[in-house]
Design goal:
four-stranded mixed sheet; three-stranded antiparallel sheet; about 40% helix
Length: about 160
């Protein structure tokens, strides 16, 4: 079973991973790509800083993209769900939002926390936040690489027990 940035959103991760384990044959492999902790991801920190206080609200249950970012906690979840032989590989690569600034800004405005924050603001406050987001993206744009921000993820592999 392979997942790329999707398994962080389970409302009950132990139950969800146990269901996945039961669907896999014995000794089959689980491969996940998940974000590491929030503070290790420049892309999220920079966007949150641009949005300000409205971005600091905790995500609703099952909506935290960093919920599997702590290797120890994630190990415990996966072991309780029936996996062993866990391996965490550090993936340190930039996130590319594209070469076009307008498209990158539209993409970032679509993030759940950003869109929720913008909807909760007056039109003038939302316009100021969008301008700060644009400035943040401009600061991370280059002709060679487009709009990129630093990121950290885990490539997690595990096997179903028995």
């Amino acid at each position: 079973m392979i997942s790329r940035f999707g398994t962080m959103f389970f409302s009950d991760p132990v139950a969800a991973f146990a269901n996945i384990a039961s669907a896999l044959g014995p000794r089959r492999r689980l491969v996940l790509l998940v974000w590491q902790r929030l503070e290790l991801n420049q892309w999220a920190m920079a966007i949150d800083a641009a949005v300000g206080e409205a971005a600091e609200l905790p995500p609703p249950p099952g909506a935290d993209p960093f919920s599997l970012g702590d290797a120890e906690a994630t190990t415990a979840i996966l072991e309780r769900a029936g996996f062993d032989e866990l391996r965490f590989e550090d993936v340190h690569e930039p996130v590319l939002y594209g070469h076009d600034l307008a498209a990158a800004l539209d993409f970032v405005r679509g993030f759940q926390n950003v869109s929720a924050a913008l909807v909760s603001m007056s039109d003038s406050d939302a316009a100021r936040i969008v301008e700060r987001l644009r400035e943040t993206l401009v600061a991370h744009q280059s002709d060679d690489h487009g709009v990129t921000l630093d990121s950290r993820a885990w490539l997690i592999t595990a096997r179903r027990q028995r």
